[in-house]
Amino acid sequence: DTEVTQTPKHLVMGMTNKKSLKCEQHMGHRAMYWYKQKAKKPPELMFVYSYEKLSINESVPSRFSPECPNSSLLNLHLHALQPEDSALYLCASSRSGGKGETQYFGPGTRLLVL
Amino acid sequence: AQTVTQSQPEMSVQEAETVTLSCTYDTSESDYYLFWYKQPPSRQMILVIRQEAYKQQNATENRFSVNFQKAAKSFSLKISDSQLGDAAMYFCAYRRRKTSYDKVIFGPGTSLSVIP
Fold this sequence. Notes:
The structure holds two protein chains of two kinds. Chain A has strands spanning 4-7, 10-13, 18-25, 31-37, 44-50, 53-57, 64-70, 73-79, 87-94, 104-105, 109-113. Chain A is mostly beta strands. In chain A, the strands form two sheets. In chain A, strands 2, 4, 5, 6, 9, 10 and 11 form a seven-stranded mixed β-sheet that branches. Chain A has a four-stranded antiparallel β-sheet with strand order 1-3-8-7, with no helix packed on it. In chain A, a hairpin with a 2-residue loop joins strand 5 and strand 6. The termini of chain A are far apart. Chain B is mainly beta. Chain B has no helices and twelve strands. In chain B, the strands form three sheets. In chain B, strands 2, 5, 6, 10, 11 and 12 form a six-stranded mixed β-sheet that branches. In chain B, strands 3-9-8-7 form a four-stranded antiparallel β-sheet, with no helix packed on it. Chain B has a two-stranded antiparallel ribbon with strand order 1-4. In chain B, a hairpin with a 4-residue loop joins strand 8 (64-69) and strand 9 (74-79). Chain B is globular and about 45 Å long. Classes of the chains: A mainly beta, B mainly beta. Chains A and B meet through strand 5 and strand 10 of A and strand 5, strand 6 and strand 10 of B.
């Protein structure tokens, strides 16, 4: 099973709302990633978790708050977002994060901030 | 800093024909990985093919093959016998060979259309 699942598929939220994105994998991978992707652009890395610890934060605004409760689950908590945060949010995982491992991507959550 | 360039924002190919997508990259490293990812419209991104820089042999996966020219820092993707399902955004990507995590550098992408 090489599947990464993400919920919800679509999310509309106001600028004062608090919401969360969820990502799950059952491949035994120990590295998990959040990316942001605008239309017709490549993914931009936001966060990397390695062995449930945050190892990379690409200077993401604090209105995005990641959480890794266990090795299979990754959350992205959203609060006080701006319209420019509207994008496709992709989760990915890989075996341990090292060398040239393949990253397996989820289908993404399409977020619209009004 | 490493960069990845894809000079063709859009390409089209007739069904059953062959198409080549270009990718060049800039790095001072000698050991690294190169990837081609495919992202169909409204569907998830998947790995098409990967190449390890220390391997001289070009990687192939069924109808997909690469032409890896290390000295020229070129990594093109050839799709043979194109099918409608090949229509997608294709991203070329680079990553240094490190035991710990290192960022994947994506190119800007090439949007491929397949004409029936």
